[in-house]
Write a structure and sequence with these properties.
By secondary structure, this protein is an alpha+beta fold. The protein has 5 domains: 222 residues, P-loop containing nucleotide triphosphate hydrolases (Rossmann fold, 3-Layer(aba) Sandwich); 102 residues, Translation factors (Elongation Factor Tu (Ef-tu), domain 3); 69 residues, 2-Layer Sandwich (Alpha-Beta Plaits); 113 residues, 2-Layer Sandwich (Ribosomal Protein S5, domain 2); 85 residues, Alpha-Beta Plaits, CATH 3.30.70. It is 28% helix and 31% strand. The protein has 17 helices and 34 strands. The protein has a 7-stranded mixed β-sheet with strand order 2-3-1-4-5-11-6, sandwiched between helices. Strands 17-16-21-14-15-20 form a 6-stranded antiparallel β-sheet. α3 packs parallel to α4 and α11 crosses α12. 44% of the residues are buried.
Length: 693
């Protein structure tokens, strides 16, 4: 294992949706001989996008893993989602990689999701490669794409492979360092011939080669001295220097090709083998002990075992499959590991590597490996598994907050509990999902990163657990209050032969400041209402206040003083005074200028400078109040108060306004009175719904 240790490459493919990540992954598997044909996303036979929801939408929704061999090296490929709806899935998976391969479309250039994933890679200190994809497409422009990459991510990005031709004329690639050309056959077999660099590319090759050597020299003082003195760097010095520069973020190699046409893939795999960091190149991983002190684990097979769980798969029949990245030590089948987060031991049987949806048993795994074990009881995504005598906890980056919520209701009556339990299983798989019951609106609220995220979850809910649900926008939890004062009598008198019912109370109702709730003051003197009946009056008021008189919403922020009343020595009872209190409250609320209140949210919206005017104009149209702005790099953070009713669909709206470049966080702040012109519409809708029921 020690001998093979430097021959492990664990990398994640990341990009904006549609850039061709999965197609590149499929071409890698075919070129390496891991698959017998070039599978394609459009044909629905991809071994990486195998979930029915992915086949249906033709996008990656769930991270997939494939361990394969190339030139006697072990490659662990992590194929991540590119759509923002699944950014949390991508972020979680990146904790398991030693670096990332960022795809940039040769037609569309750098897009939003690419920038976001680059930021995550910065936070994780990941080395990176760039692969310019779709060179065979019409309007593909490699040179312009390189300029776009460099303007977004800096001139540390330098081409190592450049294309011969583009669009329909794309024939192959040139290796800059070794100054060789590889011309591919017209079919998709991946066969090529090695030739001299075409004359029209000689100057460009020389220019890029000089840039690579400059970057390598700048990353190492000894090499820089040699370079400045005009000495040639040896091929060994260049190769070692590239790897060091990549690990130290001083160099980002750019390659190119087409996954769908299967051109340039073999040369790119060679690049990964030569220059992409092994686990030992990445060095020790930092974690914390139980006291919060920083400790680290070296990526060596004889270190204490440590691993981070980067994904959980939940199957109603096969149970739970836990996927982890090993950082140190060695793992064997039929072992016991220690979950440092839960402080429990977990035992498992088979040790597996993943090849798409297929699994293969192995006898041992060490640092750099991505492995799976079945049926761990307590362990979930984000937990650290380790040696009990040498505990360590690896922390994950905080997940982005959920931005979109829908109410979930069963299609079949009585399925509520089944929905809760099934969604709980899916939440083991998908750390970005949130489920809660809103006590005020009595709804189940499912929250995620966007419409597609929630729709895909509902598809999976039906496929895996046979539960069908309806989705709709959540109800707004309006409230009611009063603006004026009222003094009224509530009198309940009933005689039906034998003992009757009698309760009589006078109350004074007045508003309280916003957020003060409800106050009850007993001002009865002289025993006009016996003490044992006074709590019943309060109870009647509290129950009546649960449904206001305008639209049936709870009444808040009011004070009631019980000032007078009368009783009957035989017929008075707690029930009679409770009904009298309820009657008094309803009458008083109607006289005390009732009004509707709506929840106001505090929002922080991060947008590019050029979108700021549109976003602020849109907020004004949503009855928002902009509180202020602050700059953050090339972006602006807009802070605002906006009524919840106006931002139930804000996630897709902001995405379309900013071409996917905007993001926001939102939390409840306070309640405010609904403008008079809108109150009537809300009241009518509420009454219509009650009549419908």
């Amino acid at each position: 294992m020690k001998d093979d240790f430097g021959k492990i490459r664990t990398f994640a493919l990341v990009a904006h949706a549609g850039a061709g990540k999965t197609s590149l992954g499929e071409a890698m598997l075919f070129t390496s001989g891991s698959t017998t044909r070039l599978n394609k996303v459009d044909q629905g036979n991809s071994v990486l996008d195998f979930e029915p929801e992915e086949v249906k939408r033709k996008i990656t929704i769930s991270t997939s893993f494939y361990t394969f061999e190339w030139n006697k090296h072990t490659f662990n490929l992590i194929d991540t989602p590119g759509d923002f709806n699944f950014i949390a899935e991508t972020q979680t998976a990146l904790h398991g990689a030693d670096g990332i391969i960022v795809l940039v479309d040769a037609v569309d250039g750098v897009k939003v999701q690419t920038e976001k994933v680059w930021e995550i890679a910065d936070a994780l200190e990941h080395p990176r490669f760039v692969f310019v994809s779709k060179i065979d497409r019409e309007r593909a422009d490699f040179q312009q794409t390189v300029e776009d990459i460099q303007s977004n991510f800096g001139d540390v990005c330098v081409p190592f492979l450049i294309p011969i031709g583009s669009g329909e004329d794309f024939k192959g690639v040139v290796d800059i360092l070794h100054q060789k050309a590889f011309v591919y056959s017209e079919d998709e077999t991946g066969k090529f011939e090695t030739t001299d660099v075409p004359d029209e590319l000689v100057d460009q090759v020389e220019q890029y080669r000089e840039q690579i050597i400059e970057r390598v020299a700048e990353a190492d003082d000894e090499l820089l001295e040699k370079y400045l003195e005009g000495e040639e760097l040896t091929p060994e010095e260049i190769e070692t220097g590239i790897k060091q520069a990549v690990v130290n973020h001083k160099l980002v190699p750019i390659a190119c090709g087409s996954g769908v046409a299967n051109k340039g893939i073999a040369q790119f795999l060679d690049m990964i083998q030569k220059y992409f960091p092994s686990p030992s190149d990445r060095g020790s991983r930092k974690g914390k002990d139980f006291d919060g002190n920083e400790i680290e684990r070296k990526p060596l097979p004889d270190e204490p075992f440590s691993a981070l769980v980067i994904k959980t798969l939940s199957d109603p029949y096969a149970g739970r499959l836990t996927i982890m990245r090993i950082f140190s030590g060695t793992l064997s089948p039929d072992s016991t590991v220690f979950n440092a987060n839960k402080k429990v031991k977990e035992r498992f049987g088979n040790l597996l590597i993943l090849q798409g949806k297929a699994q293969k048993s192995i006898e041992q795994a060490g640092p750099g490996a991505i492995v799976a074990v079945a049926k761990l009881k307590e362990t979930v995504t984000g937990d650290t598994l380790c040696d009990e005598k040498n505990p360590i906890i690896f922390e994950m980056l905080p997940l982005p907050p959920v931005v979109y919520s829908l109410a979930v209701e069963p299609k079949s009556r009585g399925d509520e509990e089944k929905i809760f339990s099934s969604l709980a299983r899916l939440m083991e798989e998908d750390v970005a999902l949130k489920l809660e019951r809103n006590d005020e609106t009595k709804e189940m609220i499912l929250s995620g990163m966007g419409e597609i995220h929630i729709e895909a979850t509902v598809d999976k809910l039906q496929r895996k657990f046979g539960v069908e649900v309806n989705l709709r926008l959540p109800k707004v939890p309006y409230k009611e209050t009063v603006k004026g004062k009222a003094r009224v009598q509530g009198k309940y008198k009933k005689q039906t032969g034998g003992r009757g019912q009698y309760g009589d109370c006078w109350i004074e109702l007045e508003p309280l400041p916003r957020g003060e709730g409800f106050q009850f003051v007993d001002k009865i003197v002289g025993g006009v209402i016996p003490k044992q009946f006074i709590p019943a009056v309060e109870k009647g008021i509290v129950e009546a206040a649960q449904e206001g008189i305008l639209a049936g919403y709870p009444v808040v922020d009011f004070k009631v003083e019980l000032v007078d009343g009368s009783y009957h020595s035989v017929d008075s009872s707690e029930l009679a005074f409770k009904i009298a209190g309820s009657m008094a409250f309803k009458k008083a609320a109607a006289e005390a200028k009732p009004t509707l209140l709506e929840p106001i949210m505090y929002m922080e919206i991060t947008v590019p400078d050029d979108c700021m005017g549109d976003v602020i104009g849109d907020l004004n149209g949503r009855r928002g109040k902009v509180l202020g702005m602050e700059s953050k790099g090339k972006k602006q953070i807009i802070k605002a108060h906006v009524p919840l009713a106006e931002v139930l669909r804000y996630a897709p709206d902001l995405r379309s306004m900013t071409a996917g470049r905007g993001m926001f966080v939102m939390k409840f702040d306070h309640y405010e009175e609904v403008p008079a012109q809108l109150q009537e519409k809300i009241i009518e809708e509420s009454r219509a719904e009650k009549e419908g029921k």
